[in-house]
Amino acid sequence: MKRSLSRVRQPAAFTLVELMITIAIAAILLSIAIPSFSTMLGNNRLTARANALLTALNFTRSSALTQNISTRLCPLGAAGSATCGTDWRTGWIVTTLPATGAGVLLQSQQAGARDPLLSPVAINGVTPVSIVFDTRGLASTQSNFILCDARGSAYARSLQVLATGYAQLGSVPGTALWGGVLTCP
């Protein structure tokens, strides 16, 4: 008598039901993760731009102190030039301000196409055209700035430069360091 030795075969693939359940769970997880990821990217862009401006302000001040010459942070004019522009949204430059002669370009930061917009805020009707630090590290005037992106005022960041030369970033999005709610231009 011969016995047939047949094995019971185990399925080697997923069933259609298992595959559909896996795809449904993945779709639900992605629908939750993608908006959060977009918000995180927007927040990181704002923070990076604010930190870049804060770093430029600190560099401008420390250059004035270490080189014993007045220095200035102002809107970017022509690329590679030590000439100031008029629009803070294009970027900024750091230059020396000698008593005579032309200033020297120390640093330049051009805004990218996707960078948040930088806008100066008028204080007592005066909008800062540039920020000058003297040889003692004091700023020529107090200056306030707002950084905004397409999401609006609720996500905006504030930056303030005091007359003492101290620069600081607002820690709460949508709220100004100088009090009140931020409004994007």
Describe the structure in brief.
By secondary structure, the chain is of the alpha+beta class. It is 28% helix and 21% strand. The strands form two sheets. It has a four-stranded antiparallel beta sheet with strand order 3-2-1-5, covered by helices on one side. It has a four-stranded antiparallel beta sheet with strand order 4-6-7-8, covered by helices on one side.
Computed CA radius of gyration, to the nearest angstrom: 27 Å
Strand content: 15-25%
Helix proportion range:
25-40%
What is the H-and-E element order? HEEEEEEEE
- What CATH architecture would you give? 3-Layer(bab) Sandwich
Count of distinct structural domains: 1
> How are the strands ordered across the major sheet?
3-2-1-5
CATH class: Alpha Beta
Sheet of most strands = 4 strands, antiparallel
- The structure class reads alpha+beta
CATH topology: minor pseudopilin epsh fold
Shape: elongated
Number of distinct beta strands: 8
Mean pLDDT: 87
Distance between the termini: 94 Å
Q: How does this model look, in words?
A:
The chain is of the alpha+beta class. It has a single domain, classed as 3-Layer(bab) Sandwich (minor pseudopilin epsh fold). Helix content is 28%, strand content 21%. It has 1 helix and 8 strands; from the N terminus they run αββββββββ. A 4-stranded antiparallel beta sheet has the order 3-2-1-5, covered by helices on one side. Strands 4-6-7-8 form a 4-stranded antiparallel beta sheet, covered by helices on one side. The longest helix is centred in the N-terminal third of the chain and has 52 residues, at 16-67. The protein is elongated. The model has no long low-confidence stretch (mean pLDDT 87).
